[in-house]
Write a structure and sequence with these properties.
The chain has 190 residues and is an alpha+beta fold. The chain has two domains: 7-128, 2-Layer Sandwich (Enolase-like, domain 1), CATH 3.30.390; 141-189, no CATH class. Helix content is 43%, strand content 23%. The protein has helices at residues 7-17, 36-49, 101-117, 141-151, 155-164, 171-189, and strands at 24-25, 32-33, 52-64, 67-78, 81-95. The strands form two sheets. A three-stranded antiparallel sheet has the order 3-4-5. Strand 4 (67-78) and strand 5 form a beta hairpin. The protein is elongated, with a radius of gyration of 22 Å.
């Protein structure tokens, strides 16, 4: 009869087989990353081989400007005895001007739960990765104007938003947002 392994022994067996995940450079990014998909592709088959499944058991979400924040607990369970499990707390942030922030935050949280629970090396240096977070102030006319520019669906819509904006003190910031969205709309139309 085969020896029954508990969740800790199974996780240790996975750790013995997967020790490093290579960073990759994504198109348009200035730095290399370890993506959620790369982590999943590397660890999922080995977890299944050793009889371990994982899934979220708790997920709390907030939104702050263009940043979604997710606090989650990921459970790693022994498939032969589901009550034999460990819970790994994790969190993630997803910055997106539209509706993808929560999904990015959840993927980030799951990725880091996997990396930390399995003690995987990535060569990642979070201190050097930076994307500017903006906190939207509903009373700030610039934030409102930038938000309206990001919602523009056509160049005519963008022109209307630009025409309605008159605060000269923050015009440079708004002009940058308009030019960015103009480039995005032109690219989408191509």
């Amino acid at each position: 009869m085969a020896e029954t392994k508990n969740i800790h022994q199974r996780i240790a067996a996975v750790m013995g087989e997967v020790s490093y995940i290579q960073k990759e450079r994504k198109q348009g990014m200035q730095y290399t990353i370890v993506s959620h998909d790369a982590v999943t592709a590397k660890v999922r088959p080995v977890l299944l081989k050793h009889g371990v499944i994982y899934y979220p058991v708790r997920c709390d979400h907030t939104h702050n400007g263009n940043r979604a924040e997710c606090s989650m607990t990921v459970r790693f369970a022994n498939i032969d005895a589901p009550e034999d499990c460990i819970d790994v707390p994790s969190f993630g942030y997803g910055i997106d001007p539209q509706d993808k922030g929560p999904g990015k935050a959840m993927s980030y949280a799951v990725k880091y739960a996997l990396l930390k629970a399995l003690g995987l090396e990535t060569g990642d240096d979070a201190d050097h990765d930076s994307i500017q977070h903006t906190q939207e102030d509903p009373h700030d006319p610039v934030d409102h104007a930038v938000s309206e520019a990001q919602k523009a669906g056509s160049l005519d819509d963008l022109k209307a938003v630009w025409s309605a904006y008159t605060d000269a003190q923050a015009a440079a910031r708004f002009r940058d947002a308009v030019n960015k969205r103009k480039a995005e709309i032109s690219k989408e139309a191509a």
